[in-house]
């Protein structure tokens, strides 16, 4: 099945002062979920932040359904149908769970509604009147994911969504992420846990020193132990 | 001190606190979302009061009952407009550069004070409250008390409740509170944060303008009151906690009551009391009584 691109990055570059954090990254991303893996400090978070407009790119282009968005302010990029689940969750301490969802809800209709969020994440329904600081790490992560989905984006970028989650919740997360394409939502999954990345995505991009070092299928990466060691420094797949 | 005198002093403190709250809540709102220490907040008070007066005077001369109410609207609108200009023309470009914004607003406050002096002269002016709000009201224990001072408390309560409803019951309020926590994340959700900032600045400035007209009805409007109200607003929000409306109310109550009680008990040193409160709060709870540590 040919996957028509939703989000296209070409020659994306980011500099932090002298440091060249992102170097000529090009990716064509469609509806099928794509994982980006790599060790810490390889530029994965910078990639997410620059696509969404929270870090300014110094060159290259980001096309969202054919529209150049790389020079737009973050809020206009979001209105093109891009949403992010940022690293560290970044839920709002002053807002309750319910207020997060009401703020995030576009009100324009779409696959994701507040009712569906509470159905998918029953834990959030129990905590609906709790403030952002009273939630556990896992609950905050669910909230951050729900917040992104409620915008009913065309494409969502998740930066380490499994960080700090209990294994049983990770299994639930895998089900939710796998189902996203059914709602017409594309997914770029930045993940340290190889097992999660390969369970959700068939295509894996490996980042090394700000570049895409390799691109392969999930099964090929899972089978290639030396590749895992070289790029990810893992002893075995995700354990 | 007799019971009646004590009650009067406390009521005086409450009415003063009410005025401080109206002025300082705008300051706190602006700081909360934008981290802008608006040193021209006193100028917004002056602009509201003088423009309000310019509208008030000709209407009052013709004995129109609505002169004062129109002055309130004009003062709020003028201050809001001035605030929007400040934010869009000057401050928006230096978002996040707190020291630069503070210096620019100090410069602005000097310019505004001189411009108003040139236009309106140095004669103290005072609004006359409409008949319905004028005169005195008989209160138990205290006896006759100026009605307008009670109106001041009513205005502060209305402002406090209005702000609470705005921040907790509206979508704009959700945006403001989320923006106080994490502006970039709010922008990544598709919210036009600079536009929210302009709206908040307009609201905060309008509250300063409202304070200007109310304040200049209770006591004469003269050069220098801008510095006084700026200083008080600073103390109030430092004591109460920057960016917290409830904290602003508590700060205003403490400062207003301290000023009045101090003047009654030890007039010579009463000025010190306000700053003593600030020193104690800063020593024990540097983020302010309701402030959040960051």
Would you spell out the secondary-structure blueprint of this structure?
The complex is a heterodimer of chains A (239) and B (294).
Chain A: E1 7-16, E2 19-29, E3 34-37, H1 44-52, E4 59-64, E5 67-68, H2 74-79, E6 82-85, H3 97-104, H4 114-120, H5 122-126, H6 137-150, E7 155-159, H7 167-178, E8 186-190, H8 194-200, E9 203-208, E10 211-217, H9 218-223, H10 225-232
Parallel strand pairs in A: 3-8, 3-9, 6-7, 7-8
Antiparallel strand pairs in A: 1-2, 1-4, 4-5, 9-10
Helix pairs in contact in A: 3-6
Chain B: H1 3-34, H2 41-61, H3 67-90, H4 98-120, E1 136-139, E2 143-146, H5 147-169, H6 171-181, H7 183-188, H8 193-218, H9 225-240, H10 245-265, H11 270-284
Antiparallel strand pairs in B: 1-2
Helix pairs in contact in B: 1-5, 1-8, 1-9, 1-10, 2-3, 2-4, 2-8, 2-9, 3-8, 5-6, 5-8, 6-8, 9-10, 9-11, 10-11
In short:
Chain A is α/β, with parallel strands linked by helices and 239 residues long. Chain A contains 10 helices and 10 strands.
Written description of the protein model:
The complex is a heterodimer of chains A (239) and B (294). The radius of gyration of chain A is 17 Å and the shape is globular. Residues 235-239 of chain A have low confidence and may be disordered. Chain A has a domain at 7-92 and 153-232: 3-Layer(aba) Sandwich (Rossmann fold). In chain A, a hairpin with a 2-residue loop joins strand 4 (59-64) and strand 5. In chain A, helix 3 packs parallel to helix 6 (137-150). With 239 residues, chain A is α/β, with parallel strands linked by helices. Chain A has helices at residues 44-52, 74-79, 97-104, 114-120, 122-126, 137-150, 167-178, 194-200, 218-223, 225-232, and strands spanning 7-16, 19-29, 34-37, 59-64, 67-68, 82-85, 155-159, 186-190, 203-208, 211-217. With 294 residues, chain B is mainly alpha-helical. Chain B has one domain (19-227). In chain B, 74% of the residues lie in helices and 3% in strands. Chain B contains 11 helices and 2 strands; from the N terminus they run ααααββααααααα. Chain B has a two-stranded antiparallel ribbon. In chain B, helix 9 packs across helix 10 (245-265) and helix 10 packs antiparallel against helix 11. The model of chain B has no long low-confidence stretch (mean pLDDT 93). The chains are: A alpha/beta (239), B mainly alpha (294). Chain A binds chain B through residues 52-54, 73-75, 77-79, 83-84, 86, 90, 92-95, 99, 102-104, 132, 147, 151, and chain B through 171, 174-175, 177-178, 180-182, 184-193, 292.
